[in-house]
Amino acid sequence: SQTIHQWPATLVQPVGSPLSLECTVEGTSNPNLYWYRQAAGRGLQLLFYSIGIDQISSEVPQNLSASRPQDRQFILSSKKLLLSDSGFYLCAWRGTGWSGYTFGSGTRLTVV
Amino acid sequence: GENVEQHPSTLSVQEGDSAVIKCTYSDSASNYFPWYKQELGKGPQLIIDIRSNVGEKKDQRIAVTLNKTAKHFSLHITETQPEDSAVYFCAAQNGGYQKVTFGTGTKLQVIP
Question: How far is A48 from A38, CA to CA, in rounded Å?
Fold first, then answer.
């Protein structure tokens, strides 16, 4: 069966520090991968999605970036965090066609 | 692009009563409608979905109905239990494309 791993679970980082969140998927090949952000008490905002290695589409221009160095690995990064980057970050994958998302357990990021 | 409206934003019901959450969508090309349940501090989990060629789908205490003409779909939870308390998100997507549009979420509280 397919599983998705996301880490770390929580992170407290100072303003201006770098960020790296990692997500890996097991049990499937060539998954569509996504990064979402959820502000406290708010909905889901799509940040990036990827349909293949080194194929990244950005939905929201900001100081975040994403990379997909391997088929089942998706990384969210920032060179310098802002206070507004705080939130709950979710990695997800889904197949093509009639299928919903499988979300990771999320990373709670607090920028101080 | 697609726009999904979800109502109500909060819903409180007594244990054992039914709960209904409604969503409307704008893009007639959308053909797949999943529902997600997000418990506190966790990633959303797909609980039920419906395709555009089906009017109703049921899975134990939860059911989803779809009215393509009116472009709305609803989640019905019967015999609610405290463990049903969570935030529920509807979504609309075109199976052939990558983008999924989420509703803004409904916080359901089941009062024992």
Answer: 13
CA dist B4 and A74 (Å) reads 27
**Pairwise CA distance, residues A58 & A50, whole Å:** 9
CA proximity to A3, closest of A104, A111, A106: A104
Residues 28-47 of A with CB under 8 A from B: 32, 42-44, 46
Collapsed DSSP state (helix, strand, coil) of residue B84: helix
pLDDT tens for each residue of A8-60: 999 999 999 999 999 999 988 888 999 999 987 778 999 999 989 989 988 88
**How far is the alpha carbon of B51 from chain A, nearest alpha carbon, in Å?**
8
CA angle A24, A30, A36 (to 5 degrees): 50
The Cα B87–Cα B10 span in angstroms is: 9
In A, minimum Cα distance to B94 occurs at A97
Cα–Cα distance, B12 to A53 (Å, whole number): 45
The Cα A14–Cα B82 span in angstroms is: 38
d(CA B84, CA B104): 18
B43/A98 CB distance under 8 A:
no
Across-strand partners of A110? A12
